[in-house]
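ok so i was messing around last nite and threw this chain in just to see what happens. nothing serious, just curious
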Amino acid sequence: MAKGEPTPAPVSFIFIRLFFRLALNTFYGSIVVENGDYVPESGKPCIICPNHSNSVMDAPVVAITVPTNRRKLVRFTAKASLFGKPTFSSWLIVSTRVLPRFNRRFNMLYIVSRYLR
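result:
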């Protein structure tokens, strides 16, 4: 993939987005997106910072409301301790290309030995 070229969405991300769309439409009825045209096209950097009272819903809402004609893949962050475990959730996190977020607790030796091999 050339520099600046959009990252294709993995199949697992497409299924997750579909699942979230069905679940959120069931619970909320409709979700209105305003100013979706401010999201740059795929391949151009963008930071989306949701600010809701219920932060648990931020990732699902962002995953389904970012226009797919503008951006195929939205990358999320998760704490680094969720990675590298033999569980379904760990596989799902890695397969949807979530980025690990390291807290101050992790020392540099642990980071290098675990993630930068």
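not much to say yet. The longest helix spans residues 11-28.
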